[in-house]
Amino acid sequence: MKVAIVGASGYAGGELIRLLAYHSKAEVVCATSRKLAGTPLDQVHPHLKGFTDLVFTNPETDAIDADVAFLAVPHTAAMTYAGKLLSRGIKVVDLSADYRLPKDVFEKVYGVPHTDYFAAPYGIPELHRKDCINAKFVSNPGCFPTGATLAAAPLAKFAHTIIYDSKTGVSGAGDNPSATTHYPNVGDNVGPYKLTSHRHLAEMKLEMAGLGSKASVYFTPHLVPVNRGILTTAHILLHEPLGQKEVEKLYQDFYKDEYFIRFQKPILAAVRGSNFCDIMVESEGTRVVAVSAIDNLVKGASGQAIQNMNLMCGFSEQDGLKGAGMLP
Ligand SMILES: NC(=O)c1ccc[n+]([C@@H]2O[C@H](COP(=O)([O-])OP(=O)(O)OC[C@H]3O[C@@H](n4cnc5c(N)ncnc54)[C@H](OP(=O)(O)O)[C@@H]3O)[C@@H](O)[C@H]2O)c1
Prior knowledge:
The chain is of the alpha/beta class. It has two domains: 2-120, NAD(P)-binding Rossmann-like Domain (Rossmann fold, 3-Layer(aba) Sandwich), CATH 3.40.50.720; 144-296, Dihydrodipicolinate Reductase, domain 2 (2-Layer Sandwich), CATH 3.30.360. It has eleven helices and twelve strands. The protein has helices at residues 11-20, 41-44, 82-87, 103-110, 125-132, 143-152, 183-186, 200-210, 244-254, 268-271, 298-313, and strands spanning 2-6, 27-32, 68-71, 91-94, 137-139, 159-168, 191-192, 216-223, 230-242, 261-263, 277-283, 285-294. The strands form two sheets. Strands 7-8-6-9-12-11-10 form a seven-stranded mixed β-sheet. A hairpin with a 1-residue loop joins strand 11 and strand 12 (285-294). The structure holds NADP nicotinamide-adenine-dinucleotide phosphate (NAP). NADP nicotinamide-adenine-dinucleotide phosphate (NAP) is lined by residues 6-13, 33-36, 59, 72-75, 77, 95-96, 142-143, 171-172, 174-176, 296-297, 300-301. NADP nicotinamide-adenine-dinucleotide phosphate is lined by residues 6-13, 33-36, 59, 72-75, 77, 95-96, 142-143, 171-172, 174-176, 296-297, 300-301.
């Protein structure tokens, strides 16, 4: 199956190519970058030397000849490609925020008009698998909402308040350097940002509501000096107390048969480079603390996007995604 990656010079695009190199059915035939058109891909992604001889091309939709396209481009850019690719019969997985929210919520949260809106399945397969199977288009969730929602989902109906406290690695900001991601500002340091107003909060609230929860949802992210990974501590305040054994059973049952969910102490290094989400829960009665760890570029982006492609195309959900994490 032929795959195109729009935005292949970025972190998520590079990660798609790395993971797809191990996919049994998919071959990347097109990798775009406007700034680097004509440049061999391995000059930007040296870790992929020997795995691809592709050269970046311009993202002209008419020239994209593929069965599936991944949009690994910033929000507002994806909406200029999605509809055109779909009208040419190409299945699309969009890694941007353009199709994750209802139109009015998107326009409010991102402060821009949506120029080509349509409703799309929200691709956390553990929660929305049926919607993704055989879909022509899937909107891949944000990295923070993936880790946070997976941590709290089993208790959605029992909670009145959920507070997510997340720590993220620097690759979450993409490959465009800024003062925030400048090494002396990040290294040997931890800092909060967007204390109450991060855009991903809207996705988190929608997902909880979709799970039948009436809980108030809060979220504060922190930047930590690691390249990859998101560790989320969810403080879940319950209407009625639940004991440790009851909570553990709820989680075990909720994620029964989910290959990518593992129950163990979440540490970033154990999921680094992998599509796993590690979860640990502890109850103290009416408060449960649930902690999750994911790799923001894999389960938080490109790995989950491939998981969605596998569902859309009828492949094994784990194809290309069986790699272990990289500890230490
Ligand atoms: N980084 C993460 O952890 C993460 C996690 C989940 C989701 N995402 C989402 O995934 C998308 C990509 O993120 P990233 O971190 O990989 O970003 P990035 O490193 O900044 O890469 C962006 C890519 O998009 C291309 N691009 C930018 N504007 C474009 C346009 N108008 N048309 C076509 N191509 C364009 C860039 O190449 P040229 O400018 O040369 O064309 C580059 O290849 C974003 O929507 C991001 O929010 C990222």
